[in-house]
Amino acid sequence: MTDTCDFVVVGAGSGGCTVAGRLSEDAGTSVALLDAGGRNDTWRITTPFGLALPYAAANWAFDTVPQKGLNGRIGYQPRGKGLGGSSAINAMVYIRGHKCDYDHWAALGNAGWSYADVLPYFKASEHNADFDGEYHGKGGPLHVNRLRSDNPIHDVFHQAAREAQFRIREDFNAEDHEGLGSYQVTQRGGERWSAARAYVAPHLNKRPNLRVETGAQATKILFEAGRAVGIEYVQGRQTKQLRARREVILAAGAFQSPQLLMLSGLGDGDALAAHGIAVAHHLPGVGRNLQDHPDFVFVYASDYPHFVHASLGRLPSLLRGIRRYRRERRGVMTTNFAECGGFLRTRPDLDVPDIQLHFVIAMLDDHGRKKHKEAGFSCHFCLLRPKSRGSIWLKSADPLAAPLIDPNFLGEAEDLEAMVGGFKTTRRLMETPAMRALQKKDMFTSDVRTDDDIRAILRARVDTVYHPVGTCKMGTDAMAVVDPALKVHGIGGLRVVDASIMPTLIGGNTNAPTIMIGEKAADMIRGEVRAS
């Protein structure tokens, strides 16, 4: 079965939904959006509290290869599946990163990607209920606002920040973001506002030129005469093809965009040949340059009544929270769990913060997969600009097999030492009187005192905070996969529009930057269409 449209977008995550939604604004342009998952329109997705409930249908739930820097442990890599991608299962924190991150991209040779260049696209995407002015947008499809959980823990967290002599920051997305405070979230009226709800769902029955196919697993890019002309995919038990008159746009994320490129013959020629894959174009950077934020979590048991726990003793408050949510769309059901946090420098000589904190109103052990009888809270810190570089490789030529994921966490000694500084800086906050008053038991770090103790527990417990990027790097060097227009080097009619194009990891959460990438890509594509 074959069909044709102007653009075929593979992957309905933050980049894919954005670029598909924007391109389909032109009634004369036909767009098909494919995703292997489902619609993601259930209450488990739209209710923020649903983040705490396992929902396998919306999560690829990948694992890493054994990590040498983590004592050989296998890490966990949740990735969103279905409309919205990871924006349908993330903690909804709205962070753009520091302006220096984008200026660095431009300095690497990526013209048009400085902070001044990308700020208009952040603003175009945003409808911010709380802030406006030079750094914020009104009227965009992505709703951003303060939390509606009404949890008094925010006051406690702010008090602890003051006691630790950290500044209080109200807006983390303006000129500077150093300091601690309460996060804004991608919600509307107390409901999760994923990229799909922002850019695709409002138009499903209104734009005949926008076609969305779910349960559609892309297996191969189709080429003719050095140009991408379509996608082969499996839907149900059928193998189908969608052909693209103008472009194929990959937006399958930092793991699956390079995987699909390699399955289609784009990548390191020797590695592809080892799997019996014919080389369409030797592109050695595909799958290289994987970067992610290594993350450590402090965990404490607590009797504080406003922390979330699924015990029978907390059941009445949860039931009251459900009733309030139904009436007002406020209260505990609107929580993103990581309600507070911020950005800190571990050394005074640093120009910008090098760690980010996420303060969570529940005990979080092994990504929430290990349960405890007690209620409590957690505080993450992650290293924002690690030196370690990992990679993605094919496990086999089977397009339905998961890729081999190697973040190479703490692979560089410099990252381990920076994480030691992050541990000490975060513990400074945890040892303030305001935080001490909450703690009944330190679950994992009470005996950690020396630098060697810190290094040992970091290797024993560090894992991802869900921000993989970089595996289809943007640039002009020999290891770059796409150029600054996001076009794949050496192949016509093919772009990548997701977090995999980031040449370096930005200092913060990656959802908002990926949506920005989708906005900028759509603008570049429309400009080329007009000029043709």
TrEMBL record:
- Supply the PANTHER family for this chain: CHOLINE DEHYDROGENASE, MITOCHONDRIAL, GLUCOSE-METHANOL-CHOLINE GMC OXIDOREDUCTASE
Q: Which domain of life is it from?
A: Bacteria
The family note in this entry says:
Belongs to the GMC oxidoreductase family.
Matching entries from InterPro entries are given as:
FAD/NAD-bd_sf (IPR036188), GMC_OxRdtase (IPR012132), GMC_OxRdtase_N (IPR000172), GMC_OxRtase_C (IPR007867)
Xref: SUPFAM superfamilies: FAD-linked reductases, C-terminal domain, FAD/NAD(P)-binding domain
Q: Which cofactor does it need?
A: FAD
UniProt name for this protein: GMC family oxidoreductase N-terminal domain-containing protein
Which stretches are annotated as coiled coil?
A: none
Q: Which residues form the Glucose-methanol-choline oxidoreductase N-terminal domain?
A: 80-103, 253-267
One Pfam entry for this protein is GMC_oxred_C
> What's in the keyword line of the UniProt record?
FAD, Flavoprotein
